[in-house]
Amino acid sequence: MIITNHYGLPQTFVNVVERPTYTKGKAHMSVTELLSSPQIVQLKARHSQDIEVDVTDMIWSIFGSAVHSILEQGKDANHIVEQRLHADIDGWHISGAIDLQIVSDEGIEINDYKTVSVWAVMNEKPEWEQQLNIYAWLVETVKQAPITKIKIVAILKDWKGAEAETRSNYPAKQVVTIDIPIWSMEQREAFIKERIHLHSEALFANDTNEPLPECTPAECWEKPTTYAVKKDGGVRAKSVHASLEEAENALLEAGKGYNLEVRNGERTRCAKYCDVAPWCQQYKTYLEEK
Questions:
Q1: pTM for this structure?
Q2: Which of the residues 99, 157, 177, 277 has an alpha carbon 20 to 30 A from that of 112?
Q3: Contact yes or no for 196/34 (Cβ under 8 A)
Q4: Tally of structural domains, the chain
């Protein structure tokens, strides 16, 4: 990876990024990679020397690492912090680093720290449930101890007190604890094997120079095109529709003084947040068709 510093941040920022402490050990794949798009994982491996990232785009990653480091200092005698566990399944060696394990006579509670936006806790994040249940599988497989709870501890980097006072569903404070449903052992293993199968297919395609399996709409963070009926000169839409036909009917019902606004969809991750988008044939085809 090529690290740039186009906005002239102090060299210490660059040094931190260029001296990562993260390692997945001898694992074939980390839990984070297992949950990632198989196509993205293979493109990152293929173009690891070509990917260019500016240090300014990694500020929140640096901040998240700092939070983890500080919270390590607050451990109690029954706490295990930042422990990386390893286990084998279907011929693959999987590893995951668990932020906090709270050990009791009943078993082990898993906590995972996230430095995220308010949006992340106000909307469903299925990958959080998946990640923590893989951690639960790792703990029970390696330690033979039952899992009592799994939780997300979300630190909200853009929380605003004024919003908390006026919006009913807005987080009350800048730190939120979220209980995650615990899957059965069978459900966890089935999910992990399914992810391994998808990554195995992508790895084989990469090794044999075959087209890589495409990302799903969810993995592209795809937003579909929608159609809004708006009052002339208005800011907010009277109604928003998934199809042009529905929107045109709504426009007729609204009568004079209303117009139709097309809100073009996009693949947000591909456009703004994917390091390998320049080498992705799926995204190139999407842009050509669009």
A1: 0.89
A2: 277
A3: yes
A4: 2
